[in-house]
Specification:
Blueprint lengths: L1 H5 L36 H16 L7 H4 L8 E3 L7 H4 L8 H27 L6 H26 L4 E2 L2 E2 L24 H22 L11 H14 L3 H14 L9 H6 L10 E4 L13 H4 L5 E3 L1 H4 L44 E4 H15 L4 H12 L15 H16 L5 H8 L2 E7 L5 E8 L9 H5 L18
Antiparallel strand pairs: 1-5, 2-3, 4-6, 7-8
C-alpha cells in the first residue's frame, strides 16, 4: 500500500479530459503532472483524476484481468492444460505471499481506493460553490462506486468471507478503511471484515444518493451507472446474507437498467459476446476493444492461448439444448487431452480475437439469480417467487419452458440454483466466493481432461484466505498478515 500512497499523483497526471466508450480510454498519456496535495481544486481536475482512477480499475492487474479471473481459476469450473505458466500457482494452490497476481490486486486495488478518496474529499468540498453541481454529483457518485467496488474485490481476496452459510465471521480481520486519503508513511491498521462491509454498503448508498441528486447518470455502461451500483449493492447484501435487501436492490438494478427478459436464442446469446456494447444484458463493462486492449495480458488471451478453459465438470452441467453452449468454441489446435478454448465470454466473436474482448462485470442474469436465491433463503411462501426469478435464467436451456420444469421444493431448488449460477456466471469471477459463502466441500485443480478428475476433493474452501503481499507487510506500516498457510490444502 505504501507504493500506491506515494505514487497516488499518477491518477492526477493521466488525461486532460474524460473519454467515453469507444474513445482511446486506455491509451492515456502522462503529460499533465499536478502536485497531489494541491491538484483537486477545480472541477476540471476532478474530471482528470476520475479518468485516472478508471484507468487503474480497468488495468489488467486489477479488474481488467487479475482481480476478476482469480474468482474462477482456482475452482471446480476451470481447467488448465499446463502448456503455459499463467496463474499456475493460484490454480494449483501453490501460491505464497510473494505471488505476483496477489501483489498487483492489492497494489492496484488500493490505488483505486485512495485516489477515489481524494476525489470524494475534494469534490464534496466544492459542491457548495460549484457552478455545475449536476456534473460534480455524477462524478462523486462514480468515485464512491469505484471505491466500493475495489474494496469488495479486495475483501473477497484478502479477507475471510463475511458470512458462511449463516455463520458470522464479521469480527475477522478486514481491510484498512478510512474516509480520508491515506498519507504516505502513515501507520495504519486493519478494520474488521464487518466494518469493511459496512463501509462498502455506505459508499454504495451514497453513490445512489449522488446519482439521484444529479438527476441521473451518464447513461454510458462503461462508467458506473445507478443501475450498476444497485446491482453491486445487491451482490454485497447477498454476501452479507441480508436477503430482503439483496432482493430489493437486484430488482432496482433490473428496473433502472430496463431489463425484464434475457436472450434465449443461440444466435442472440452468442452475439452478446461480440465485444463492447454488444452485451445488452450488461450493466457495467470495461471499455476494452480492438483499438484499446491488454493484448497478451488480456482476459481473452488467458482463456484461449494461455490454456484455461471450462472444466469437464462444468461442460457436463449444460443440457443438450442450452444456448450457452454456443460460446464454447475451441481452437483448431485443441484436442480432448490438451484443450485450447476459444475464449467463451471473452471470445469477441465479431473480431475473432479474444484479446479484444472486454470484461462484463455487473450483469442482469446475476440479478435474477440473486432474487431467486434471496427468495429461497427467505423460505415460506417465497417458493413461487424464487422459481419465477430462476426461470428467467434457466430458460437458456430451451428444454426448460415453465416453472413446472424446475424443482418443486426449496431444498432441490436451492441445489438447482447453485448449479445455475455455475452455468450462467462462469468467467464473471464469482465462483470462488460462491463456494466459500455456501460452505461447499469443494473439488479443486482439475486434471486429466477429458476425464472429470480433481487432485483434491472435499476441501473446506470457506476457510481459504490469500496472503497479503510480503512487500506490504515488510514495509512496516502496520498491516498484519493473514494466517493463510493453514487454510490451503495439501496437494500431492
Amino acid at each position: 500500500m505504501r507504493k500506491y500512497i506515494i505514487n497516488s499523483l499518477t491518477a492526477l497526471a493521466i488525461s486532460a479530459s474524460l473519454a467515453s466508450c469507444g474513445d482511446n480510454f486506455l491509451e492515456t498519456k502522462y503529460y499533465k503532472g499536478i502536485d497531489v496535495e494541491t491538484a483537486l481544486t477545480s472541477e476540471a481536475n476532478i474530471q482528470t483524476a476520475l479518468t485516472g482512477v478508471y484507468n487503474q480499475l480497468y488495468d489488467y492487474r486489477f479488474a481488467g484481468n487479475y482481480a476478476v479471473n482469480i474468482g474462477d481459476i482456482p475452482t471446480d469450473l476451470s481447467y488448465w492444460n499446463t502448456k503455459t505458466g499463467h496463474f499456475d500457482g493460484i490454480y494449483q494452490y501453490s501460491f505464497d505471499d510473494k505471488d505476483t497476481y496477489l501483489y498487483y490486486i492489492w497494489d492496484y486495488g488500493f490505488k483505486v481506493v485512495n485516489n477515489s478518496a481524494r476525489i470524494i474529499k475534494a469534490g464534496n468540498g466544492m459542491l457548495g460553490s460549484s457552478s455545475d453541481a449536476t456534473t460534480l454529483n455524477k462524478e462523486l457518485a462514480e468515485a464512491y462506486a469505484l471505491r466500493a467496488y475495489s474494496n469488495l474485490i479486495m475483501a473477497n481476496v484478502f479477507c475471510h468471507q463475511v458470512k458462511v452459510n449463516g455463520t458470522d465471521f464479521s469480527s475477522k480481520p478486514g481491510l484498512p478503511i478510512s474516509d480520508e486519503p491515506i498519507v504516505a508513511f502513515q501507520k495504519i491498521s486493519r478494520s474488521t471484515v464487518g466494518e469493511t462491509y459496512d463501509k462498502i454498503v455506505a459508499d454504495l448508498k451514497v453513490s445512489i444518493d449522488k446519482f439521484t441528486a444529479a438527476g441521473g447518470d451518464r447513461g454510458d455502461k462503461c462508467y458506473f451507472t445507478k443501475a450498476s451500483v444497485e446491482g453491486l449493492l445487491a451482490r454485497t447484501y447477498l454476501y452479507l446474507e441480508k436477503w430482503d435487501e439483496a432482493k430489493t436492490y437486484a430488482q432496482a438494478a433490473l428496473k433502472d437498467g430496463n431489463i425484464t427478459v434475457l436472450n434465449y436464442k443461440t444466435t442472440d446469446y452468442k452475439a452478446l459476446y461480440n465485444g463492447g456494447s454488444s452485451n445488452t444484458e450488461s450493466l457495467f463493462y470495461l471499455d476494452i476493444n480492438a483499438t484499446q486492449n491488454w493484448s497478451a495480458n488480456s482476459s481473452g488471451t488467458l482463456w484461449s492461448t494461455y490454456n484455461y478453459s471450462p472444466s469437464p465438470k462444468l461442460l457436463a452441467m449444460y443440457g443438450a439444448n442450452d444456448v450457452r453452449k454456443s460460446i464454447q468454441t475451441w481452437d483448431k489446435t485443441s484436442v480432448d487431452v490438451t484443450p485450447v478454448y476459444g475464449g467463451g465470454k471473452y471470445a469477441a466473436f465479431a473480431s475473432s480475437n479474444p484479446a479484444f474482448a472486454t470484461n462484463y462485470l455487473i450483469n442482469a442474469p446475476e440479478m435474477f439469480l440473486i432474487i431467486a436465491e434471496a427468495n429461497i433463503k427467505l423460505g415460506g411462501d417465497h417458493l413461487a417467487d424464487a422459481q419465477n426469478a430462476l426461470l428467467v435464467v434457466a430458460k437458456r436451456n430451451t428444454s426448460i419452458t415453465s416453472v413446472t420444469d424446475l424443482p418443486q421444493d426449496i431444498t432441490s431448488l436451492y441445489a438447482f440454483l447453485k448449479d445455475e449460477r455455475a452455468r450462467e456466471l462462469f468467467q464473471e469471477g464469482l465462483r470462488l466466493w460462491d463456494l466459500r459463502r455456501w460452505d461447499t466441500k469443494a473439488s479443486i485443480e482439475a486434471y486429466a481432461a477429458p476425464a472429470v478428475k480433481f487432485r483434491v476433493d472435499n476441501y473446506t474452501i470457506s476457510n481459504l484466505i490469500y496472503p497479503i503481499p510480503a512487500d506490504e507487510i515488510n514495509a512496516g506500516f502496520g498491516i498484519e498478515q493473514n494466517d493463510w498457510a493453514s487454510t490451503i490444502p495439501a496437494i500431492e
